[in-house]
Amino acid sequence: MSSRRVVVVDDHDMFRAGVRSEIGASVDIVGEGSDVDTAVKAIVATEPDVVLLDVHLPGGGGTEVMKQVHQRHPEIKFLALSVSDAAEDVIGVIRAGARGYVTKNISGAELVDAISRVADGDAVFSPRLAGFVLDAFSGAIDIASVDEDLDRLSQREREVLRLIARGYAYKEVARELYISVKTVETHVSSVLRKLQLSNRHELTRWATDRRLV
Fold first, then answer.
1. Angle at alpha carbon of residue 66, lines to 105 and 35, rounded to 5°
2. Would you say domain 5-137 falls under CATH 3.30.300.130?
3. Residue 184 belongs to what H/E stretch?
4. Where along the chain do its domains lie?
5. How far apart are CA 19 and CA 104, in angstroms?
6. Domain spanning 143-210 has what CATH number?
7. What is the pLDDT of residues 24-55, one digit of tens each?
8. Which residues form the Response regulatory domain (predicted)?
9. Cα 45 to Cα 152: distance, rounded to the nearest angstrom
């Protein structure tokens, strides 16, 4: 069997280099991208079997890459590879057309297997993430309302929301995101206002009900 042709899209140079070194002997890495524009150019130029796609990218994110590529090449398959295991990220990229979603703690051998399966037309998910997708399609998660609410929040506000909902103190959130406690407070106030919530307990309940933590 000929080697699968793959484009790797991620905004971290070190991560792309790591993927190349980990799976480069088993697949043919024909291109790379670090943001929406460079990704679309590389994919359109090389027409790979599978694109390994990070969800959060400068210029509009992984969903924007898929949208632009699929307008011209609907046959190209995407496998999301992300640090995020948040329900809205998983469901967002699946709805945009990805054939699978795996997290970055996957081993090299598992990743090569996932690429091969996606290239053959299968759908591939890390086990925990498959549950999100089933819940979304069974109606257990109201995706439309989650999307609408989250669209009001900036990317940084979503990060703060998720950490607060997981029980982090403001100081811990500040340390985790490399921002000041004052900035965390500002973001939390903004999130509460946009979502029309009164306090962090309501925020935690809101996020838990929507499977965001």
1. 70
2. no
3. helix 181-195
4. 5-137, 143-210
5. 10
6. 1.10.10.10
7. 999 999 999 999 999 999 999 999 999 999 98
8. 5-119
9. 35
